[in-house]
TrEMBL record:
Lineage top rank: taxon: Bacteria
Keyword annotations: DNA-binding, Transcription, Transcription regulation
InterPro entries in the record: Tscrpt_reg_HTH_GntR, WH-like_DNA-bd_sf, WH_DNA-bd_sf
Pfam families: GntR (PF00392)
Coiled coil stretches, renumbered: none
Limits of the HTH gntR-type domain: 11-79
Spans traversing the lipid bilayer: none
Entry keyword Transcription regulation: yes
One term of GO molecular function: DNA binding
Name assigned to this protein: DNA-binding transcriptional regulator YhcF (GntR family)
Amino acid sequence: MDVVIDPASDVPPFEQLRTRLAADITSGTLAAGTRLPTVRTLAAELALATNTVARAYRELEADGFIETRGRHGSFVSAQGDAAGRQAQEAATAYAERVRHLGVDPAVALRYVERALGL
């Protein structure tokens, strides 16, 4: 695994690792079903504390990017594009909310476009 952690960065090491792994999973560089290194192994490779890698793995699991199978290890989730799935869930929740508020759909879309900077 080709991950580089910049110790001089303002971004915490766990977040650098989480972001890199999430990007590799989303791009397909790390395919569904790929077994990830153990927390201890990756921590040693990256010269990080085991708690740092464990936190990155926990957050990736909470976001649906990876799954932990007990003593068998952590694997890239086979559930598809976690970021896309979460974006769809957020869009659905937003649509339900604006309907409940009685906001015109065209106005609701303009709000989203402005929020995205389009």
